[in-house]
């Protein structure tokens, strides 16, 4: 599996689309100056913008890498040469996933460092009302990365059954959007007034979706980072377990489907 | 032990709107270890389908394929196999050297041996100059050569090659023939598909002919060549007076003082007896036989007529 991870990483680094996406990181240079235009709450604004930029780049990478890696191997007929080696489809799929996940973490470290520099620069220009808690920002970025790695797993699952890239690309984006919204919608449906108004079938359907779709709200800690609010550590541990469990299940289904698939 | 054992293998492709292609019908085939087997058939006969089934890329509709005793649905069955796909494609961002190293490591070769073997096969296939360039920039024939290099690098016991000569120049084709002959000498099993009867004639022990998904013939190459023997062309030194006929046969050609007679196998002994008693000089005796190409063509046309 190590060699699959290795060539996955090589492939990403030598890819032009990846190089294009990374150019977006240049935008970090402009964040402090953009934030300075607001004159107030410059640090908070810089933090918000930096975290949003990281999220945006990571989402692009997650969808692009997760959806296209397997699809491209099939489309370009690389699967004939690779899957005829003595590797199981499961090893191949997990190797691909770990390669991409590792790359996402490396990108996180790189982008995170850029963000910290931008925020530090902002604190010089306009001292913040509340002291910046660096560890909080770092943990926030880390959980953001976990969220997008989970999106990678979803995109790969869709790619194992799809013959075009439409399903994995748009499917992953939809699951991401829906996953961000499930918790608020679920909470809303639990309020007594709504329970009375909405039919049981709709509520059951929503509940099923709630358990089926990834729940991504727990990964979003931006508020804590921006306003230096302490974390609920137990919540973070649960979220991590949720991440590991959900990814494991998704990829197990993925490798089952992929093993069944024919290379025509 | 047989290197490859195929029993009752069938493959149907189900298309859209209930179309259904019987790509392979009940194939039984045993390839012995140490044997070079040519798999001959026209376009769309089912050669690549068979090979993909054996490599576990397709799932059989029914039947089994076993390589070196291991069922081909398991990854383990490919541990001793070097495989060249039809019109191969390899990660184009890697160089030939990197790709061959990747393949070698999948076969758990140790680093020093891998390095040595990799250099060897890359040189052998004349990719040395290009070995550090990404394969994106390779020509079709160069990709085919990488395909052969990665099938050879780990020195497996079984080679499964789908049209190994395709896309190669004459020098490349000759090289592949030499490689296969060398593998044969070293007791390896080679199973390869091709359209070109000449390749089969030169290198194979046995040949199987597949037409429209069914195996229509399977035999040793020398048997086919021997059974195809039809007669002899005998060149005799004759004076102008009796140039036209000899022992009741008409000359088919005359050049200078030499007449050529076509002698069917059945009367060859009698004809040569007559030559002996007359004391005429024999310049040359040529065997006239149907070659593998004719054999192949007659099989294909006859099975096409049957199905009509
Ligand atoms: N994925 C597929 N879906 C439907 N039919 C297929 C598929 N792949 C192959 N076939 C059909 O199966 C038959 C055998 O194809 P195959 O590729 O095995 O032929 P082949 O002997 O390798 O031919 P060639 O010499 O042209 O390479 C053909 O009729 C082909 O149309
Ligand atoms: Mg073919």
- Measure the end-to-end span of chain A: 24 Å
Q: Report the CATH superfamily of the largest domain in chain B.
A: P-loop containing nucleotide triphosphate hydrolases
Shape of chain A: globular
Ranges of chain B with pLDDT <50 over ≥5 residues?
Answer: none
* Oligomer classification: heterodimer
Tell me briefly what this model is.
The complex is a heterodimer of chains A (264) and B (308). Chain A is mostly helical.
Task: Write structural notes for this entry.
The complex is a heterodimer of chains A (264) and B (308). Chain A has 264 residues and is mainly alpha-helical. Chain A has helices at 2-13, 16-23, 31-36, 42-75, 78-82, 89-125, 134-161, 166-190, 192-197, 200-212, 222-227, 233-260. Chain A has one domain. Chain A has 12 helices and no strands. In chain A, α1 (2-13) crosses α6 (89-125), α4 runs antiparallel to α6 (89-125) and α8 (166-190) crosses α10 (200-212). Chain B folds into 3 domains: 1-80 and 156-228, P-loop containing nucleotide triphosphate hydrolases (Rossmann fold, 3-Layer(aba) Sandwich); 91-154, no CATH class; 229-289, Alpha-Beta Plaits. Helices cover 33% and strands 33% of the residues of chain B. In chain B, α2 crosses α3 and α3 runs antiparallel to α4 (140-152). Bound molecules: adenosine-5'-triphosphate (ATP) and magnesium ion. The site of adenosine-5'-triphosphate has 14 residues of chain B, from β2 and α1.
